[in-house]
Give the backbone structure.
Amino acid sequence: MTAIALVGCGEAGRARRIGDAMLAALDHDRAWHDGRLRNAYAAGPVQSPVKLGGWWDKTQNRWQEDRYQVSSDTGNMAWAMLALLSLDQALHDPRYRDGAVRIGGWVAGRGDTRGAGGYTGGLSGWEPSPAALSWKSTEHNTDLAGAFTLLSKATGNAVWSDRAGQAAKFVAAMWDDGCGCFAVGTTDDGVTLNRILALDAEIWPLLAIPAMAPHADADLGTIDSKLAVGSGYTYSDAGGALWTEGTAQAALVLGLLGHADKADAADRAVEGQRAPHGGYFATPELKLATGFADAANPGTQRFYYHLPHLAAAAWAALAQKHFNPFTDSASLP
């Protein structure tokens, strides 16, 4: 998100550092050389192999790592592709396009034939045999629809357009006329719908997939009635506090759809969460419930906290610039 926001703000040269780190990670993982990235890496200079985050556990007298960070979610891979393709378009450096192709090849292996098709969640855990995540996410498939579409344009290879269609077909199947909303995805069986109402799963299809445009009015009406918090929005129907990142996402889609007054109100709600030194707090409350399990600690819920959050700052910048990360432009698909 930071790389794309920098490109959208005319700072592609600074974003190059992020893209180069992703390419280094593709080439210098301690185990994988098949096009996947990890969900997270340790901050600091790039080393070979690229260092993963962790901590020393005194009670066990050993180095520990976080399960989620060492894993590979398809949605995170899609955003890495989007970042690299944004850099490719801005800097005309084919290394970034080629890196996106490598990641896309790995993600293509997560294709699924159950139910409405689409792509599964990825792989979880350590090498050599991480566990397959068999659930499917509306958010992940939306990300992939956008990333594969841009990859098709960048390469001229129609296979990526076909893969974008596979992801978009899944997202379309998640639409529920009864609630005027997208289901958040499926459970582990790949068919049963997960009925949590989550803001990004509602907004991103409108930003990424042309065929979702007819659902815009009903979808925006649902988030206004179910997820609104003042002039902003919360993460899901599990929590009632403002979610800064998601409110910026809403400001962007509202602005691009021509709802200027509501977009301005959402922008003001985001600006109310300015942190020192130019960042943005993830939420004004001490913590914001998501309704989703913490992937690293099964049985516990994942929260956002009242801390400066880089993704919130990136989406705030994109909203202010009216820059759609799924099209690399100030327009809907």
